[in-house]
Design goal:
single chain; mainly beta; Immunoglobulin-like; 5-stranded antiparallel beta sheet; 4-stranded antiparallel beta sheet; 1 helix; elongated
Length: 142
């Protein structure tokens, strides 16, 4: 079995540019079938990426921020767009994809609430043409 090494305890930060409506931090793997407790992901298996997100104060409905998924992984092909919801179930942002880019489009919730943030996750897997080996995966906010 070929493994993908991710440094133990290492959480690759991802920050959106100042002109964007939000930022990301604490990007890491969720331990599971394909990811061990020391941060090593099995090659060829699916895994879950977890992260913290926050909305920049003054953001408006329709503003967005993005998270770039590094090659050689991709979002799980069966993963549909979804909502980031508040603790009371109100929609904060719609999450969609365009290739390797995950887009978080804000709703009017952000215009009436402050300190909007939360935790989220989504599934990823290996791109079909990827060969076994060690990869440095850097998630970037744009």
């Amino acid at each position: 079995m070929t493994m993908l090494a991710v440094l133990q305890g290492h959480r690759e930060p991802a920050f959106a540019e100042q002109s964007c409506a939000g930022s990301f931090s604490d990007v890491s793997w969720r331990e599971g079938v394909s990811v061990t407790d020391d941060g090593v992901a099995a090659f060829g298996g699916a895994a879950t990426v977890v992260f913290h997100w926050s909305v920049k104060e003054g953001s408006r409905a329709g503003d967005y921020f993005t998270l770039q998924i590094p090659e050689p992984i991709r979002r799980e092909r069966t993963l549909a767009p979804f909502w980031l919801d508040s603790p009371t179930g109100e929609h904060i942002a719609r999450v969609t994809w365009d290739g390797q880019t995950t887009r978080f489009t804000l709703t009017d919730y952000v215009e009436t609430h402050s300190n909007v943030s939360g935790d989220a996750n989504f599934g990823v897997d290996w791109q079909g043409e990827t060969r076994p080996g060690d990869y440095q995966l850097n998630f970037r906010g744009l």
